[in-house]
C-alpha cells in the first residue's frame, strides 16, 4: 500500500516543479460536485458525502495558496439545490454554515458570500454574513463561497442593481437604455472588483458549467476532473493547473 502513495508523492512533486509561476491563474473557480454520488457508492447518507466534501475545502485553499492564487470561488450550493428534500437540505445547510465558520475562524482567508441570501433561511444567511464580517480585514487568499448561487440570477440582480442606482439619481428609462453597457453589469455583479476566473474546475466527470459564473467565465479555461469532490487530491489540482498553464490564452483576440 505504501508504494502507490510514494509514487503519487513523487509524481506530485514532479508536476509542481514543472509549473511556471508566471503562468499561474489569479482566480480559480471550483464546482464542488459529486458528494452525493461518492456517498451512494459507499452506501452512506448524502449528509456524509456533503460533510466529506466540506472537509476537503481547506486542503484546496492551501494548495491554491502554495501556487500564488489570489481568489478562489467555491460553488457550494446552487439555487437548484434549494429544491432538494427538506431533510437533505437542512443537513446540507448546517454543514455549509459550519464549514464557512471554520474558514473564517482560521484567520487565514478573507471570506465573501456570493449568492441570493434572501433565498436562504434567515439563520443561515445571518451565520454566513457574520463569518464574512469577521474576515473583513484579513489580507490572505480571497475566498468566495457561492451559496444560493445561480449565474442567471446574478446577472438579473446586477441589472436590477444598476437600474435602481440610476433611478435614484433621477435618470429616465430612455436615459438608462441609452447609457447601458456591458461594463455596467460587471460593476454590479457579486464579484465586482475581482479578476474574472482564469480557470474553472468541475469535479465528478460532468462537463458543463450549470450556471456557474456565467458572466465572469466568458474567457475562462475549463478543466473537468473525473474524481468526485471528496476524492479530489492535490495531484488532481496540479494536473488542472498544469493543463491551464499549457494552453494558449487569446482572450478572444
Main attributes of the structure:
6-stranded parallel beta sheet; globular; 48% helix; Undecaprenyl pyrophosphate synthetase; alpha/beta
Model description:
- The chain is of the alpha/beta class.
- It has nine helices and six strands; from the N terminus they run αβααβαβαβαααββα.
- The chain has a six-stranded parallel β-sheet with strand order 3-4-2-1-5-6, sandwiched between helices.
- β3, α5 (122-134) and β4 (142-149) form a beta-alpha-beta unit.
- α2 (35-41) crosses α3 (46-66), α3 (46-66) packs parallel to α4 and α4 (86-106) packs parallel to α5 (122-134).
Largest sheet: 6 strands, parallel
What's the arrangement of strands in the largest beta sheet?
Answer: 3-4-2-1-5-6
Tally of separate helices: 9
Helix content: 40-55%
The CATH homologous superfamily of the domain at 24-150 and 196-243: Decaprenyl diphosphate synthase-like
* Topology, number of strands: 6
Strand fraction: 5-15%
Summarize the model shown:
This is Isoprenyl transferase. This protein is 48% helix and 13% strand.
Q: Topology of this structure?
A:
Elements: H1 2-18, E1 27-31, H2 35-41, H3 46-66, E2 71-78, H4 86-106, E3 110-114, H5 122-134, E4 142-149, H6 151-168, H7 173-179, H8 182-186, E5 199-202, E6 221-224, H9 234-246
Parallel strand pairs: 1-2, 1-5, 2-4, 3-4, 5-6
Helix pairs in contact: 1-9, 2-3, 3-4, 4-5
Amino acid at each position: 500500500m505504501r508504494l502507490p502513495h510514494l509514487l503519487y508523492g513523487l509524481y506530485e512533486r514532479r508536476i509542481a516543479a514543472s509549473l511556471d509561476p508566471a503562468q499561474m491563474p489569479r482566480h480559480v473557480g471550483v464546482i464542488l460536485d459529486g458528494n452525493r454520488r461518492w456517498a451512494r457508492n459507499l452506501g452512506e447518507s448524502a449528509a456524509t458525502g456533503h460533510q466529506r466534501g466540506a472537509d476537503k475545502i481547506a486542503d484546496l485553499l492551501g494548495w491554491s495558496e502554495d501556487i500564488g492564487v489570489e481568489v478562489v470561488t467555491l460553488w457550494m450550493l446552487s439555487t437548484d439545490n434549494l429544491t432538494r428534500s427538506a431533510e437533505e437540505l437542512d443537513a446540507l445547510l448546517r454543514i455549509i454554515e459550519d464549514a464557512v465558520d471554520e474558514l473564517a475562524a482560521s484567520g487565514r482567508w478573507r471570506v465573501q458570500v456570493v449568492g441570493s441570501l434572501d433565498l436562504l433561511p434567515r439563520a443561515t444567511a445571518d451565520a454566513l454574513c457574520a463569518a464574512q464580517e469577521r474576515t473583513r480585514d484579513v489580507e490572505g487568499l480571497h475566498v468566495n463561497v457561492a451559496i444560493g448561487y445561480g449565474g442567471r440570477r446574478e446577472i438579473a440582480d446586477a441589472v436590477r442593481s444598476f437600474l435602481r442606482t440610476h433611478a435614484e439619481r433621477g435618470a429616465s428609462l430612455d436615459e438608462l437604455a441609452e447609457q447601458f453597457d456591458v461594463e455596467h453589469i460587471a460593476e454590479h455583479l457579486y464579484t465586482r472588483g475581482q479578476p474574472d476566473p482564469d480557470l474553472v474546475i468541475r469535479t465528478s466527470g460532468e462537463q458543463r458549467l450549470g450556471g456557474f459564473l456565467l458572466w465572469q467565465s466568458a474567457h475562462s479555461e475549463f478543466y473537468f476532473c473525473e474524481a468526485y469532490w471528496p476524492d479530489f487530491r492535490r495531484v488532481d489540482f496540479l494536473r488542472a493547473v498544469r493543463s491551464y498553464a499549457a494552453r494558449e490564452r487569446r482572450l478572444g483576440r
